[in-house]
Protein: Biopolymer transporter ExbD
Amino acid sequence: MRVRKPKQETSIDISSLIDVLFILLIFLMLAVRFTEPTSTISIDLPKSKTDQFGTESIPLRIQLKSNGELYKNQIKMDIETFANSLEMNTDGNLGVSLEVDQHTEFRTFVQVTDILKSKKYLKIDIKTKKE
Structure:
């Protein structure tokens, strides 16, 4: 007569699997490319082959909406206030990020760029949507 051995229960220790999953999760969280926060002002930017013209990180941000509204660093103002509040760029190193709605009147765009030129802002980063 044969004596049967009791079957051993096989189990998988998943604690090391959980550790590996957490390490992968942390790696993916750190590897994700974080984008620049989007503006709260909705502008219908014109399309181009690239995202923008210019590559510098610029602290002064000017936005022109199709209804003629002008924003300087998220603060709404008119053309005269904009011209008076804009400081003179004495050393020429400061730049401007310009976001213009594609339906904005060209006259408004010319007025803003003329003010920028008169205040010696020559580095202008024009934002567009990538096609």
